[in-house]
């Protein structure tokens, strides 16, 4: 994955703002109605760079995939090598991690704009990605 410090030093960010201005020529009234688009570039501070980088959909997907691989690796490690009656620190991490994954699915159900709980569940199950998440 990409080191966050490299985001600040290697990647060049510029913020583009589109500003509109009317042309004020005295030659013709047609020209005065035209709009020109100017792009103003300004430097961005480091916190805006980090926020823009980590909220990019590609980076979110990459870190989400990496997180899921780490979760499955820890779970398979526990099931293959460390399965027993005692609870270890890795077990507790996996319990908390699994609980947060469950709460994310509950949050997705609650964010659906429907009047009843039954219609929310129907809408949630109708999406193929949510079916894959459940099983």
From TrEMBL:
GO CC terms of this entry: plasma membrane
Check the UniProt entry and state the signal peptide residues, or none. 1-16
Answer whether the UniProt record assigns the keyword Cell inner membrane to this protein. Answer: no
Molecular function (Gene Ontology), one example: ligand-gated calcium channel activity
- Where does the chain cross the membrane? 51-71, 77-102
Could you confirm whether the keyword Transmembrane appears in this record?
A: yes
Keywords in alphabetical order, please: Membrane, Signal, Transmembrane, Transmembrane helix
Record's InterPro entries? TRPM
Specify the protein name.
Uncharacterized protein
What is the originating organism of this protein? Dreissena polymorpha
**Lineage, broadest ranks:** Eukaryota, Metazoa, Spiralia, Lophotrochozoa, Mollusca
């Amino acid at each position: 994955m990409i080191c966050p410090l490299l985001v600040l030093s290697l990647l060049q960010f510029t913020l583009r703002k589109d500003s509109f201005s009317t042309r004020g020529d005295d030659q013709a009234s047609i020209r005065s109605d035209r709009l020109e688009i100017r792009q103003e570039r300004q430097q961005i501070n480091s916190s805006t760079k980090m926020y823009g980088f980590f909220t990019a959909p590609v980076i979110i997907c990459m870190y989400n995939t990496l997180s899921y691989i780490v979760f499955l690796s820890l779970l398979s490690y526990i099931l293959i090598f460390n399965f027993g009656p005692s609870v270890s620190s890795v077990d507790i991490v996996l319990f908390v991690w699994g609980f947060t994954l469950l709460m994310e699915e509950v949050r997705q159900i609650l964010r659906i704009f429907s009047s009843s709980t039954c219609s929310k569940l129907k809408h949630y199950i109708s999406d193929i990605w949510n079916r894959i998440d459940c099983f």
